[in-house]
Write a structure and sequence with these properties.
Bound molecules: adenosine-5'-triphosphate, magnesium ion
Protein name: Cysteine ABC transporter ATP-binding protein
Oligomer: single chain
Largest sheet: 6 strands, mixed
Shape: elongated
CATH superfamily of the largest domain: ABC transporter type 1, transmembrane domain
Organism: Staphylococcus equorum
CATH class of the largest domain: Mainly Alpha
InterPro entries: AAA+_ATPase, ABC1_TM_dom, ABC1_TM_sf, ABC_CydC/D, ABC_transporter-like_ATP-bd, ABC_transporter-like_CS, P-loop_NTPase, Type_1_exporter
Keywords: ATP-binding, Membrane, Nucleotide-binding, Transmembrane, Transmembrane helix
GO biological process, one term: glutathione transmembrane transport
Length: about 550
Amino acid sequence: MKPHIQFKIDRDLILSIIVGVIGSLVALSMFFLSGYMVTQSALGAPLFALMVLIASVKLFGFIRAIARYIERLLSHRATFTMLRNVRVQFFKHLIPVVPDVYRKFNSSDLIARMIGRVEALQNIYLRVYYPPVVIGVTAIISTIVMIYFSYVHAIIICISMIATLVVIPWLSAKRARILKRQVNKVQGDFLNQFYDYKEGYEELDRFGRTEFYKKQVLHQLDDYEAAQAKEQRFLSLYEYSLNIVSMIALFFTLYLGVVQVQNQELDVVYLTSIVLMMLTLFEQAIPMSNVAYFKADTDEAFHDIDEVIAHPMKQGVEAMHLEVLPTEPLYKVRDLNFKYWNQSSYVLQDIQLSIDKGEHVAIIGPSGSGKSSLLQLMLGLYQSDKGEILLNHQDITNIVDEEKYSQINALLQTQQLFDGTVRENLFTDKDDVELRNVLANLGLDHIDLDRYITISGNTLSGGEIQRLGIARLLLRDVPIWIMDEPTTALDIYHTDSVMDIIHTKAQTLIVATHDLRLLPYFDKIVVMSEGEIVESGSYQSLITERGYLYQMVEMNVS
Ligand SMILES: Nc1ncnc2c1ncn2[C@@H]1O[C@H](COP(=O)(O)OP(=O)(O)OP(=O)(O)O)[C@@H](O)[C@H]1O
Ligand SMILES: [Mg+2]
């Protein structure tokens, strides 16, 4: 079963419902008594009797206020507890879907779901489940009591409450869902487009595309406003139908009441009381006017949140085997097939590869041939659909991250920097002398360790960022190095010196690269094309065989 957010009913909620029902019943009794008092005073009841009635009405007023206070306190506490639980659950489920989740949702969408959609759930108790339950229970008790005074009015309460609490919400639920989904979608589209436009404005400006994009953004805004207007119309209609129900019910309450009084089936002193009580009952039912809408909204919120956490990655639990058997390869990739979750075609097919301890392997191939995907799988960042990747005889996805990364140095195609000093960005506790040494070896001696750099990296050159990424690896004593195009941003001079250092420092080295000049320094070359390994072997043997590598080198020379 897919993971999903669960939420449970807690003690506060049940208590708040009980107090809510008591509060509603007190309100009904208060108005019933008021009606009785008004009629009695018109009929000339003695003053002391009226005083008792007035005092009772006041007392009910007090009790009602207190009940309402306690009910609010409890229901809000229940809501906050629920929100906290949802956030904790969401966070727990979010960790196992990283990094896949970043590929599925862009950051604005993900943040909207993490914050906005979770926030939307605050309405689930107060606006979705609470009103029908409290009003329903109040209505049932009122109906039973009313049978004692007038069964006709009991029937009116019964029918009108069924219409208010069940029939109309049920009829409008589907429409509410469709509308809510529409509004959420156009809102999301609008925000994404607006965000893109704002972020990419300079790029668009250089290509003369700002007007085109602006029109699109404004168009999305119109759509959003139209969807909101439609939603508003629906809400008015829904509220209107609830009002009609209450009007009809009140009309019949009065009309049938008068008929009953004429036929002497009902004592006239109760007529005003019954009418006032009905009015109060409908007043209590006002929160029902948004139930269908909020139900649709919270259902959507659950759906949006569950979608984020739906595809968990397996979390490694095993300790890593550190002893490599002398007869076995360090890495063994067997029958590997892989596709990204949102793509239909495979990006890696039938990959077989073994890498010995101490071997230096280069992976080459045209852009899009699957080099980065293969390296990321070898790091255990994704799970394959078929086949396996064994590191020391152990499925890489079974190994605990911490243990895995204590043996593997990885440089992905892009490096993430953080706001802070260069020293902080090197992720190490080693002393400054060593840090300066490593930076100097990489030709970065001009960069001060205290220099402040930003998350976007736009205060450094591309080559400097890349070398900072490599410096992070050099500061760790780790045997296995996996690097995705480590020298793309470097000039020839820096490429050669940096690769020299890498070859010296790494025990086992796996590098994806487009730089054919580097290949003679590797023990094995793996050539990829369209997701498959088309040839592999030592540089010399592949050149002699005059296959893919030979053609690539020839093309490069010419
Ligand atoms: N996150 C992703 N989701 C879906 N498809 C992806 C994703 N990443 C890569 N791909 C697709 O998988 C295929 C292989 O991509 P990959 O990045 O592995 O190629 P590559 O050989 O590293 O290319 P390059 O030399 O340009 O870095 C490409 O067709 C690419 O469009
Ligand atoms: Mg790549």
